[in-house]
C-alpha cells in the first residue's frame, strides 16, 4: 500500500477517470486535511497563522472539519464497498479514523502563546479548500481546454509547491517585512505617507496596483533577461498544463525576491490598511485566475487588464510570445513598454520552457537554479 501511495505521489501522468482513482484521491486529500486540521487544533501556536486566525471563527472551523471527516469517510467507505481502489480508500479511511481518535472536531483549544514560530497549516487547508472549490467551478463553467482533467499531468508537483509555499507563509512574511524595513526604511517620508494614507479609497487602490505592477513588471522582465535570475524563474515556466494550480509552481527565492521588491514601495508610500487588504485580495485572485484553464479574454478591456488569455501567452512556447506579456494586473504596461504579444492566433498552442530542460518534481525544481549547467 505504501509503495502504491508513493507511486501516486510521484507519478506524472493525469489520473485515469472511471476507476475510482479520482474519488479515491479526493477522499485521501480531504482525509489528510482532516488530520492536519486536528493537529492544528492541538498545536495552534505552531500550526496556525496569527494574521489569519484573527479573521475566522473557531466554531465554523470545527463544523468544517466535521463535514470534511464525514465526506472523506463516506467516500472511502463507498469505494471499499464497491471494491474500487481499496488500497487508496483504506488509506483515506485510516486517516479519518486517526483524526477522530485524536479528538476530531471536538479538540478543546485553550490559551496559547502567540509569538512562536509557526507553519501556516490553517492557511494551507483553508486556501486549498476555498481555491479549489471556487476555481474548479469557474474552470468547469468557462473551460478553455475542456478535455483537460483537474488531476492533469504533473499536478502532484504543483500541489507540492502549493503545500510548501503556504506552509512557509510565516517565514516569508517575517523575511520580507525585515528586508523591506532594512533595505527601504530610509525612503519612508512622513509627508508623502500622510498624503497617500488620506487619498480617496478608489484612487489609492488604482495607485497601489499601478505601483505594485510597475515594480512587478520590471522585476519579472529582469527574471527573463538576466540569465542568473532566469534559473530561478524557469521553474515557474516549466509548467505544461495551465490551470488554477499551475501558478503555485514558483521557486521560494522568486517568492522572496518579488514579494520584497513589490512590498517595498507599498510600505514606503504608506497606503492605508483597507487599501492594502483590498490589494492583497486582488493580487491573490489574479495570481490564480490568470493561470486558470478558462477562456476569458475580456474583449477590448484585454488591453487594459491582465486576463487568463494574456498570461497564458506569457507561458507559451510559441516564438512570437517568448519574453513578452510581463504585467500581472495592468496589460497596458506591456503595450506601453513594447512587450505585448502580437499574434494572429487567439490562444497559444503549447506551454512550458522551450527545450523542456527543467526536471519535474518539487525537490528537483528547488535544486534546479543551483545545479543547472545551461
Ligand atoms: Zn515569466
Ligand atoms: Zn505565470
From TrEMBL:
Residues 206-339 form the Fatty acid hydroxylase domain. The keyword Magnesium does not apply. Signal peptide: none annotated. Keywords: Membrane, Transmembrane, Transmembrane helix. The chain crosses the membrane at residues 21-44, 64-82, 87-105, 117-138, 159-179, 199-218. Pfam families: FA_hydroxylase. It is found in: Membrane. The keyword rRNA-binding does not apply. This is Sterol desaturase/sphingolipid hydroxylase (Fatty acid hydroxylase superfamily). It comes from Comamonas odontotermitis.
Amino acid at each position: 500500500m505504501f509503495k502504491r501511495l508513493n507511486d501516486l505521489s510521484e507519478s506524472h501522468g493525469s489520473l485515469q477517470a472511471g476507476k475510482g482513482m479520482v474519488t479515491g484521491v479526493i477522499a485521501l486529500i480531504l482525509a489528510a486535511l482532516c488530520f492536519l486540521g486536528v493537529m492544528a487544533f492541538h498545536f495552534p501556536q505552531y500550526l496556525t497563522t496569527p494574521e489569519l486566525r484573527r479573521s475566522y471563527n473557531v466554531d465554523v472551523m470545527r463544523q468544517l472539519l466535521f463535514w470534511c471527516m464525514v465526506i472523506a469517510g463516506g467516500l472511502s467507505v463507498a469505494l471499499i464497498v464497491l471494491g474500487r481502489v481499496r488500497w487508496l480508500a483504506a488509506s483515506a479511511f485510516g486517516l479519518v479514523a486517526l483524526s477522530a481518535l485524536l479528538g476530531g472536531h471536538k479538540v478543546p483549544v485553550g490559551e496559547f502563546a502567540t509569538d512562536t514560530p509557526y507553519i501556516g497549516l490553517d492557511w494551507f487547508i483553508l486556501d486549498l479548500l476555498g481555491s479549489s472549490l471556487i476555481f474548479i467551478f469557474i474552470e468547469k463553467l468557462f473551460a478553455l481546454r475542456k478535455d483537460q482533467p483537474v488531476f492533469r499531468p504533473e499536478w502532484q508537483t504543483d500541489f507540492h509547491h502549493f503545500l510548501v509555499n503556504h506552509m512557509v507563509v510565516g517565514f516569508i512574511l517575517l523575511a520580507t517585512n525585515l528586508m523591506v524595513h532594512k533595505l527601504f526604511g530610509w525612503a519612508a517620508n512622513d509627508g508623502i505617507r500622510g498624503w497617500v494614507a488620506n487619498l480617496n479609497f478608489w484612487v489609492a487602490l488604482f495607485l497601489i496596483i499601478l505601483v505594485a505592477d510597475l515594480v512587478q513588471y520590471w522585476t519579472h522582465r529582469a527574471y527573463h533577461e538576466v540569465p542568473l535570475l532566469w534559473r530561478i524563474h524557469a521553474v515557474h515556466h516549466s509548467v505544461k498544463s495551465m490551470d488554477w494550480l499551475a501558478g503555485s509552481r514558483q521557486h521560494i527565492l522568486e517568492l522572496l525576491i518579488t514579494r520584497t521588491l513589490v512590498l517595498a514601495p507599498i510600505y514606503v508610500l504608506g497606503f492605508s490598511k483597507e487599501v492594502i487588504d483590498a490589494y492583497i485580495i486582488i493580487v491573490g485572485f489574479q495570481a490564480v485566475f490568470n493561470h486558470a484553464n478558462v477562456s476569458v479574454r475580456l474583449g477590448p478591456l484585454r488591453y487594459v487588464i491582465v486576463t487568463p488569455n494574456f498570461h497564458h501567452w506569457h507561458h507559451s512556447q510559441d516564438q512570437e510570445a517568448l519574453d513578452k506579456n510581463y504585467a500581472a494586473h495592468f496589460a497596458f504596461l506591456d503595450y506601453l513598454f513594447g512587450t505585448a504579444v502580437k499574434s494572429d492566433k487567439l490562444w497559444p498552442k503549447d506551454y512550458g520552457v522551450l527545450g523542456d530542460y527543467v526536471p519535474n518534481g518539487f525537490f528537483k525544481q528547488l535544486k534546479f537554479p543551483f545545479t543547472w549547467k545551461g
